[in-house]
Write a structure and sequence with these properties.
The protein is built from 12 helices and 8 strands. The protein is of the alpha+beta class and 301 residues long. The protein is globular and about 60 Å long.
């Protein structure tokens, strides 16, 4: 079963192929290259532990630069995890590296005003290449970190992050990390992982309640409480949206979720006569729209 961090990397990799701005796709790729890439005189190689991220990198090289990368699996490494190497070569690859450098500098300069979409794109790429996070409700606390051999890289992330990141040297590596539910969820939200934020908050609240109750509840009760908390949060988010301003499909999904707050994604798909993937996509779009609306309201004040 994939870890929580692996699932988030998979979601970010899938998001990279969505119809977002081409500029931000390049900035995201710049973050990935800085996190997991090495350059030489003839090209560039990215070494990644996630198959989904490796496939996403291949797509990005093709779509953004017209390059035809070579993807190799290096076989199992300690703990049985495969590693993937994505290699691009030639003059166009060297030119692409320079374009990515410009995108990185733009993201970094953007924070002279406040962290914006370019910085968020760079963080998404960096997390796919060098990030990890503890699962919701982890008994040792909430922790998200970026680990890299270069100090400059992790300090750049600390500047781009909306959550305070502490930078330390640990076992020959530089680490920028956030502790506590607020820091972790702020970073997840900045990277666009709104569903993960809902799950993290629900599980975090549940974890604290279980600790205070000295773990007297069983697994079924805990799972029900998590679902109820997440459902209540999602109801609040959806009710903040004006149904008249939504596209038809999203308006139907909003009404369907409000009418069936405790239904699973599979149940919503069956009731609505659509696929589970479509349900997941539409709920994610609604969450993103609500988050954007909240941000605009805050700025207006």
């Amino acid at each position: 079963m994939p870890s929580f961090a692996s699932e988030l990397r998979r979601q970010l990799a899938a998001r990279a192929g969505s119809p977002v701005g081409r500029y931000h796709r390049k900035v995201e790729l710049a973050g990935l290259v800085d996190a997991a890439g090495t350059s030489d005189g003839s090209g560039m190689t990215l070494r990644i532990s996630s198959a989904a991220v490796a496939r996403s990198v291949v797509r990005l090289w093709r779509s953004e630069f017209g390059l035809e990368p070579r993807l190799d699996a290096s076989g199992p490494v300690p703990f049985g995890r495969a590693r993937y190497a994505v290699r691009v070569e030639g003059n166009r690859a060297v030119q692409a590296a320079e374009e990515l450098r410009v995108g990185r500098e733009t993201a970094f300069n953007e924070v002279s005003k406040r962290p914006g979409p370019a910085g968020a794109a760079y963080l998404r790429g960096a997390f796919q290449g060098a990030g990890s996070v503890t699962p919701p409700g982890y008994r040792r606390g909430h922790h998200l970190e970026f680990c890299h051999e270069q100090e400059e890289f992790v300090r750049r992330l600390a500047v781009l992050s909306r959550a305070p990141l502490k930078v330390v040297r640990r076992r020959g590596q530089w680490v920028a990390y956030a502790k506590g539910a607020d820091g972790v969820t702020t970073l997840l939200a900045q990277m666009g992982l709104h569903e993960a934020v809902l799950e993290y908050e629900a599980r975090a609240v549940l974890g604290e309640a279980k600790a205070n109750a000295n773990r007297v509840t069983n697994f079924d009760a805990a799972n029900a409480a998590r679902i109820a908390t997440a459902a209540a949060r999602q109801q609040e988010v959806l009710q903040s949206l004006d149904p008249k301003s939504l596209p038809h499909a999203l308006g139907e999904m909003r009404a369907l979720r409000l009418e069936h707050p405790d239904a699973s994604l599979a149940e919503l798909a069956r009731i609505g006569g659509i696929t589970k993937s479509a349900v997941n996509h539409r709920l994610r779009r609604l969450s993103e729209m609500a988050a954007a609306r909240t941000t605009m309201s805050t700025r207006a004040r």
